[in-house]
Amino acid sequence: xxxxxxxxxxxxxxxxxxxxxxxxxxxxxxxxxxSGVGKGIASSSIATCLQARGLNVTAMKIDPYINIDAGTxxxxxxxxxxxxxxxxxxxxxxxxxERFLNIDIPxxxxxxxxxxxxxxxxxxxxxxxxxxxxxVVPDIPLEVIRRIKEAGKQANADVVQIEVGxxxxxxxxxxxxxxxxxxxxxxxxxxxxxxxxxLPVPGSIGEMKTKPTQTAVRALNSAGVFADMIxxxxxxxxxxxxxxxxAKFCNVKLENVISAPDVDSIYxxxxxxxxxxxxxxxxxxxxxxxxxxxDLAGWKKFVKRSKGGTDTVKIAVVGKYxxxxxxxxxxxxxxxLEAIKYSAYGLNLTPEIHYLGASHFEDxxxxxxxxxxxxxxxxxxxxxxxxxxxxxxxxxxxxQGIPYFGICYGMxxxxxxxxQNVLKLKNASTEEINPKADHLVIAVQASQKDLIKEKKMGGxxxxxxxxxxxxKGSLAQKAYRADSAxxxxxxxxxxxxxxxxxxxxxxxxxxGVSPDGELMEIAELSKxxxxxxxxxxxxxxxxxxxxxxxxxxxxxxxxxxxTHTK
Length: 566
Ligand code: GLN
Description:
By secondary structure, this protein is of the alpha/beta class.
């Protein structure tokens, strides 16, 4: 039988005087009824309102799948992959948090089931469990809790907001709800639970139904978790009668049943929540000292500008991931689309964004359709599909003087097009598509070769923030108004330096390069040759924010508009 030993550990002599760490409050956002109803936006909006009350807020997302990160998932299935500053490939909701809160969020703030299990298994291998049995419960929830607390510590946060992906009642989410239950049991006054639910209005009856929400609350309760607030997503506002019903059957205060009907723009949501004093209610419940009124002046100004500019600017985004069956999937390029919008709003313009499938332009006859756009953007991408279409588009806009902005793959293809059509290099390609081509103008990074051979594909691209030095007087340097830029990356291939001399001699300048001069970060044609023709190896869209539009997007949108008005 095991006997208990007395602890013999001595306490250390006088600890160094340190500022006491904050004891943050935790707000969990869980989903009821179904996914895809705007839980991420509701969650981002709550965080924005709390921030506007003077609190230091950090936001986390939990995704209940086995993938270690979002990097290995097909974007048509999962939407955009959002890369954090420190290189973690995450869900697009992390992008919403960064955009709404106007902050950089670190990797600790994102977790998947896979990454949590990986940590626990690694700790077990490192003998960190002291030889005891390691179990799904409590060790998995304990690791989840450790990460949540660590995120709070790293951000020195007053509030840590945690969005649990999926909906309650799903098998995959059980261990995360268990973590929530454990945290709430340990410190009931420090944890609040908000359920974002959906209230359908079936066409055949024309009446809003609360039953699915009641059922979802019951599923949450059976996990030992009780909601403090219910945000009711619905096509129309929730009336008093239904609010009362929900309060009664779902065990929440009447004033904590929040109506969140569909709105024209996601950016209206924080303002609508404030009309209901939502963040104040949360602060009161958690005993958080905050400003009496949320300061959303900057946000309001942005929203006002987004409602209509003095003129329109028409931008075509040519991508390969747009269609899925009968549906258009603009989510795949979410950050790019938002970045265009922020810059257009900043210039007092209304953006009209058109999504064009790249394959359509494999037939050169279709290229003249591009004439009606003020600017064309080719975003990031992978693989063969749509490549020829994109190359045709780039050649066309280069020759026609239509402003062009190429991002990542869009930059590589811009360089390749130049090599094929201006340098006239026969059989030039990117190693990604044709490794046997005579001229690999875009080639795999040396550091990547072994990784590819060993099939180590997950989380191994060049990821996260790197510096680019900017050439004086270039379009890029003028846009940034700086001599260098820090931007986020996600790619395996690079412009092959063997071709730089020829490309430059033929007029294509590399105006952004890595500090060691080895990696080409920005390519552009000079203003004398083209109104705006620029490609960037990084993803500027990941740092575009409503209250801080990205300078390169602004330069592109401005050039597009100016060409149009000429
Ligand atoms: N497929 C290219 C690469 O891996 C570009 C990636 C991207 O556009 N994100 O380098």
